[in-house]
């Protein structure tokens, strides 16, 4: 609610009801409800102090001024009549152009005369202004991109696989119905008495005919029946299971004491349940940028011994402190220069050491104002990296490759330089074999020339350094030495004028940008790359950015709760982002990825398509309707959800100690198209085993189809639960109860269903034979052999980072148990 002048008095009015032209009064510490041109304030000079932190994130106070022609007017007593002409509503929060006609005079209006919606009045008792933009036409609202619908990347890929299965289902139904038509045509003279399809009914003593609609309609009905029988391969229940798992994951994230902010007494908030697993896939692929910083220099790494003989430090030595700063920055982001020789360099990239051949280098010179290095990659490709001053680099950048990035980088460079930072631009391009050979020949000739060598080398470099792809820009701040601020203050007190060319400031990507521009930067990254983006902010000016990112995180700080209310996740401290991503993000991704693949396997296994080959394509089912329904509700649903919530492939300690393990989610190791097809092949094998072993075991016996269906039901439930048990990492009593309890519950349900007289079933007679138990126990064992062999081979011969870390955990835990046992013995 805000105060609006109505009939010579200010009355409260809702923000959404304020209209352009109305006079608004705002008191101290209140938020401006619309964009207003300032008319008067409590200060006699007409000045108002405002805080724009909700718009641009800046917490310092700014001043706005009322025009002399209006500052003495009292709205309750004086009639204020005039006309304001201004520009149409726009998103520019830093500009405003208009004029005001009052008392026969035309007064110009600018940015210093307007206060935007979202600003807060500070150190001013009251301010009065006239609304020029209201509602959705205010600059703040125009900078609000709106809340887009978000869906996790994993679920998006899952939907693609479901579409593949749906296409396969339709194809399967078409094939089966076509085969049914062929079968009916070939046996049209035998349909009266043929098994699975009798047109004659003798059950009532008198001969009657079943309805027969002709070949065409029978084929159509066969198609519809195929859809009903085979639709279980589409895991519709998976969506419900995913939501239940996400609720469980959110519970543990919220109650994680490591993300509890004692200062503000706030816990972590999970405000969006549909993107939990995206926390494990956040990335921004800037490999070449950081590789250029680590490689394109003359820095020499020096190994320094420490008091611990098992630990070594690397000290970077070089002629330029700027190069040292850039190499240290690259190391901080996981690109650590380990070794440099005249012919190669070794860089530790996210924990993996890679060797690059240094095929050539053009050092910095005052004419080119840049340097370049040619690197030979381990895979045989050759690239040239160039860094230098922006004035010369943009002349050799191919702007057509990425014009938007070039323009954005130019803007960033201007911002950096305006606050005294030293900037560099980095570019790169790949060299073909012919280009490298041409350069190498020219380089050898120039480097061996006795006369004019420097000029020749410069020409070779200029010819090489062109058509570059822009990688990015860097900005370096001069770190003030100890005592410098005190010295400057002393000189100022001595009335000595100083011009500060460099000062301490925060590292930023963009400076003084509007909220929608922040969102635009995120949108640009999403458009140009396939990376998962995360945006984090604590103010209203961050709302658009938070909503635009794949994952938006709000910090509940001093700038209000707008960022929190619009975020997907909220926390009290920025540092909580580390356990959120590295621990919970990793767990959520691993669990959800496995659960999706397991549900595809679980549902497809129960279809038993091959049965139609033995029933004349009549879609007769051996499994009872009750078992078909209960399969996804009681028989197999609970273990999937429990494991999806509780299972942990690695401990918190390992994930926090080795951040490189987070890369498993970025590389999509747990869910991808290859794993999907491998799972489908494994499902096909297990389905064949589950079908044919009972068929051939009871071949030429008098067993009925419903008894065979009970055997299949029990065998499949045993298979899927044993399959799940093989993959469980951390066993708990809940895991045991859900898996083994589901098997017991299935047996009970089958017995109860068969005990109902009106339902077919002969589990009691079937279970009395030893052959039945051989099939029930033998099918899971035989079906799991290939999976077990492949799993053991991969774990022992081609282990992943996760598996290696897991084995290290087991070894560490066993050592701790041994040490604790030794302590007990010593006591």
TrEMBL record:
Cellular component terms per the entry's GO annotation: plasma membrane
GO molecular function: ATP binding; ATP hydrolysis activity; ATPase-coupled intramembrane lipid transporter activity; metal ion binding
Bilayer disposition of the protein: Multi-pass membrane protein
UniProt entry keywords in alphabetical sequence: Magnesium, Membrane, Metal-binding, Transmembrane, Transmembrane helix
Residues annotated as domain P-type ATPase C-terminal: 564-799
Residues spanning the membrane: 162-184, 219-240, 600-623, 629-646, 675-699, 711-729, 741-764, 770-790
Membrane is among the record's keywords: yes
GO biological process assignments: phospholipid translocation
Entry's localization field: Membrane
Residues making up the signal peptide according to the UniProt record: none
SUPFAM superfamilies referenced in this protein's UniProt entry, alphabetically: Calcium ATPase, transduction domain A (SSF81653), Calcium ATPase, transmembrane domain M (SSF81665), HAD-like (SSF56784), Metal cation-transporting ATPase, ATP-binding domain N (SSF81660)
Full protein name: P-type ATPase C-terminal domain-containing protein
